[in-house]
Amino acid sequence: MNVDRVIQVEGLTKAYGELLAVAAISFEVQEGELFGFLGPNGAGKTTTIRMLTGLARPTSGTARVLGLDIRAQAAQAKRHIGVVPEQSNLYDELSARDNLLFMGKLFGVPRGERRRRAEGLLRMFRLEDRKNSHFAALSRGMKRALTIAAAMVHHPKLLFLDEPTLGLDVAAARSLRALIAGLHDQGVTVFLTTHYLEEAGLLCDRIAILVSGKVVRTGTPAELKRAAEGESVIEVRFGKPVPEARDVFTSRLPGAQVVAMNGHELRILGGDPAQAYRVVFAFSEEKEVAIEAVNTVKPSLEDAFLKITDLSPVAMTQEKGK
Amino acid sequence: MRTYYLKPPAVSWGIVFPITWILAFYLRSPRDFAELVPGLIAMTALFSTTAAEAVVINFELRLGSLERLLLAPIGVPAVFLGKVLGGALFGLIMTAAVALGSILALGLSVNVVYLLMVLIPALLAFSSLGALLCVMVREVFEAQTLLNLPRFLMIFLSGVVYPVSAMPRALQALAKVLPLTYAVDGLRAAFWGPGAAAYVDALVLLGFALAFVVPGMRLLARRFE
To answer: CB–CB of B141/B59 below 8 Å?
Structure first.
């Protein structure tokens, strides 16, 4: 078993009838890495996880997880992997502790040991006070944390996290990111899918960008950011919300990508920076709206993502709103 | 067990419905009720097992927890068989309660060996039938609706209340391909003999179980392709 390369994927493809969900992707994940799989909704991230965890049969291509062929040796591979699906799907009627004990039992952890591990995980994920609460009664953040804990009960070497912070409030998402970083520090290899660019940039050692079922770029966050180097990035903050600003700027700045960060703020990537400044000031006068700040900044991972994927700013804004 | 078996669909179709039928027949004709006991025990086995399958399979499919089971180092056949055995166990508890209650209340005598020899394959056959039909649909209400078709057909054609031998020839032929017919016949043999019939019925019921389990496993596996 080649443990240096925890995941080896070669030409992996999944088709559902006419729909090609994953199109001949290839990548590797090294031991101890926190590897991000980044892409918009529907890019094929979850389908890839399902194939790598034995829940879906690849149409073609090969995938080895911990050196084991996921088609022929799925049961063996599953003993060493933990999976946190996008949906927190533990049993509503069981308590936090009983859910962990049940998962331990499924993975054949001996009785005394699984009790010890369940208590340890409840402590680690700060759920001790809620250990007797039914899963249904936990907050969304707690459910997510317990679902991760359940995936850890058999001490997996590789942890798959599918959109772990989706739908969480800011505080819960931050706390969960700290937990994921902690697991990575302990040497667990983590395969993380997300469509939150900031999350991928903060947590991941390396990132693969997936668009329409294809891996379009792989690299460290710094390497990916370099893809947008040389592009001007201007951030504008207005004194009040101007929802029409993005459409106006898009029409007046050919070659630039305009992203509305929120009602007040815009980000203009690429195009002619001098022209961008002129358009911003002209818009401010025209609409009689004050400019609170206008800055030229370094390209972010988001800017790089836009440049690499060529995803339209409208689509990107919709992604962020989800 | 505590996760599923007190959910409303399991209680209404698996417990309330058979008990209501039993009470209805008892109140209609208390004197002739003893004659109906084997059929009503078989009907209880059918309803309790199939109702439990709709809960254990379709609730889990909808919540995604069935998928969680498959993330463990176990395959689809093991999960499917687990669901079949779970339904059969729930059915056994319900059916044992009905059988014991009827036997004690009416002072009936029964050959326990024959009773178990027929009842256990019957529970497995009905549970497998339920599991097969439940993996075809996603929602619990869809499953209960789909299950009602064979359940009600069998109640009327398998000799639960009306003897198969008294039915028109075409319906008798149809009754021969229904598992409940063999459960009713085998249970009658356990109560009133001849015992030899119980052996044949038990074997046929095991055949039905196998015939339902194999396609059921394949259908469930196809959901995860």
So the answer is: no
How large is the ipTM? 0.77
* Residue keyed to tokens 């936090």: A96
Alpha-helical regions (H) of chain B: 8-11, 17-28, 33-53, 60-63, 65-70, 76-106, 112-134, 140-157, 169-175, 179-192, 195-223
CA-closest candidate to residue B85, choices B220, B218, B222, B209: B209
pLDDT of residue B119: 96
A91 contacts on B by Cβ (under 8 Å): 3, 65
Please tell me the pTM assigned to this model: 0.80
pLDDT digits (tens, 9 = 90+) for A27-54: 999 999 999 998 888 889 999 999 999 9
Minimum-distance CB partner of A79 among B64, B70, B73: B73
Distance of residue A161 Cα from the nearest chain B Cα, in angstroms: 13
3-state helix, strand, coil in chain A (%, to 5): 40, 25, 35
Per the listing, tokens 């063999």 go with: B182
Beta-carbon count within 10 A of B24 CB: 9
Cα(B142)–Cα(B78) distance, integer angstroms: 24
B65, B74, B224 member nearest A89 (Cβ): B65
Tracing tokens 């995803």 back to the chain, one arrives at A311
Instruction: For residues B162 and B165, give the distance between their C-alpha atoms in angstroms, rounded to a whole number.
Output: 9
Q: Do B224 and A92 touch (CB under 8 A)?
A: no
Instruction: Determine the residue of chain A that is closest to B4 in CA distance.
Output: A93
pLDDT in tens, A131-141: 999 999 999 88
Instruction: Find chain B residues with C-beta within 8 A of A79's C-beta.
Output: 73
B168 preceded by a cis bond (ω within 30 of 0): no
Which residues have C-beta within 8 Å of that of residue A242, sequence separation ≥ 6? A263, A264, A283, A287, A289
Beta bridge partners of A217: A209
